[in-house]
Structure formats: C-alpha cells, structure tokens
Amino acid sequence: MSFLTKNNFKKTTKLTVLLVMVIFTGAVVFAMPDHGKEEINIDGGKKGNIAFPHRIHQDILDDCNICHAVFPKKAGIIKELKAQKKLKKRQVMKKICLKCHKSMKKEGKETGPTNCSACHVK
User: Fold this and answer.
1) Buried b (16+ CB within 10 A) or exposed e, 34-68
2) Which string of DSSP letters, residue by residue, matches 58-81?
3) Which of 37, 52, 33, 36 has the alpha carbon at shortest distance from 93?
4) Whole-angstrom distance, CA of residue 30 vs CA of residue 18
5) pTM of structure
6) How far apart are CA 64 and CA 92, in angstroms?
7) pLDDT digits (tens, 9 = 90+) for 45-89
C-alpha cells in the first residue's frame, strides 16, 4: 500500500501549508524593526520624571529623526548627555517637545501638553 493515499496527501498538504505559514510569520516578525518600548520613563530632574508615550509619538510623527537627531536611541541617553554637558538643561523640552506641541496646537491639530506639570510627575 502506498504512503500517499488520497487522505495522507491531504494531511501532508495541510501540514506543509501550515509549516510554510509558520515559517513566513516568524520571518516577518523577526524582520520587523525594533521600535523601542511603548512608554519610556525619562528622568525629568527636579520637576519629576516623565512617562513618555513613545509609541504614540512614533505613530503620529512617523519620523524617528525628529527626536533622535538630537539624541541617539539609547536608554538613559538624555541624562547621560546632560551630564556630559552635550545637552543643555531644557533643550529637549523647549526645542523639541514644546515646540512641536505648540506648533500642532496652532495648526488646530490634537496635541500633547504645553505646560510642565502635565508631563513632569513628582
């Protein structure tokens, strides 16, 4: 009796298709770029830390270089650059965050906070 009976052929085909789908899905997931954490806790100094909604900013801005042109993608980099005197105390907040939020607000778009206490939490 042959191994590839009609019933075995169907089972083998289904298993092959399933295996190809699993391999393809794994390859797609593996190839996806790392976009970092959904939310990042940033040391906000004396005013308090900032729970930064990273994923929301990625979705809205769609250009990582808007922020990462100023600082590399590395955990704790803002604090590190401040300690090295390569980043001034309020440079990120004033020249990136608030500038963008105020610009979007002026354009009538939904935006994030434009005051300190809305982001900094003691």
Assistant:
1) eeeeeebebebeeeeebebebeebeeeeeeeeebe
2) HHHH--THHHHTTS-S-TTHHHHH
3) 52
4) 18
5) 0.64
6) 14
7) 888 999 999 999 998 888 888 888 888 888 888 889 888 988 887
CA torsion sign, 61 to 66 to 72 to 75? Answer: negative
Q: Chain centroid to CA 60: how far?
A: 11
- Eight-class DSSP state of 108: T
Strand order in the sheet with 40-42: 40-42, 49-52, 120-121
> How would you classify the pairing of strands 40-42 and 120-121?
unpaired
